[in-house]
Design brief:
mainly alpha; two-stranded antiparallel sheet; 11 helices
Length: about 220
């Protein structure tokens, strides 16, 4: 008898979850190939939380309850917010008193790397804003850049802006979870699987690097992909 569609879907989810948990186990013992001792020292008081989050047992802290349907502001800076999300801490936020600047996808595409990074840092200081419906086109563009332009540069061993790539990875990971979109998770899978010679180039910004890995670790533990 042919398997029902429900049974096939249930089997696919079981296989996917098993694969993600295997990757999580691999990350638990292999994160040191990304974060050096020197990078940990630069993280200061956040180092212990990052090590605990990456080396500890499976722990998933859902960001959905913190997400709202309106734009939020916060007092913490962007690296602190990303680390907090990655290690499972909350971010104190409040509804914004001003409307966010309109940013069309075409305008965003036209930004040079430095201006793009500055725009992302300012716009997503409260990172969960990336999950609002109005930001879906920007999120799709981040995914396209990672998997086309940035991927091509890495594979060709060309120069690239490390902060730009790492921030896009964190925002992509956050969006992946908020929208339950496996395409965005696949982008993180690809960059995690980079050879060591490429990984070493990501140590330029320990905060963005640690945040991405911690966010990735949480995604791998999410129970309901």
């Amino acid at each position: 008898m042919a398997a029902s569609r429900f049974a096939q879907r249930d089997s696919s989810r079981t296989i996917l979850r098993s694969g993600l948990l295997r990757r999580r186990a691999e990350l638990r013992t292999g994160w040191q190939r990304f974060i050096t001792v020197k990078s940990l020292e630069q993280l200061g008081s956040n180092a212990a939380k990052v090590v605990s989050a990456l080396s500890g047992q499976d722990a998933f802290h859902d960001w959905q309850p913190a997400a709202t349907m309106e734009w939020q502001d916060c007092d913490a800076n962007l690296p602190e917010c990303l680390i907090s999300l990655g290690v499972g801490e909350g971010i104190v936020s409040r509804p914004s008193t001003t409307k966010p600047t309109v940013l069309s996808c075409s305008d965003f595409k036209g930004l040079r790397t430095k201006a793009r990074l500055e725009t992302l840092c300012a716009r997503y200081r409260y990172p969960l804003n990336i999950g609002l419906e109005r930001e879906s086109e920007i999120a799709e563009e981040l995914l396209r850049q990672l998997m086309v332009a940035d991927r091509a540069k890495l594979e060709a061993k060309a120069e690239f802006e490390v902060d730009d790539v790492l921030l896009k990875l964190s925002l992509t990971g956050i969006y992946a979870r908020m929208k339950h979109d496996l395409r965005f998770l696949d982008a993180l899978n690809y960059f995690y699987e980079l050879p060591q010679r490429s990984v070493a180039r990501l140590n330029h910004n320990p905060y963005f690097l640690a945040a991405w890995l911690c966010i990735y670790a949480q995604l791998l533990c999410a129970p309901d992909w």
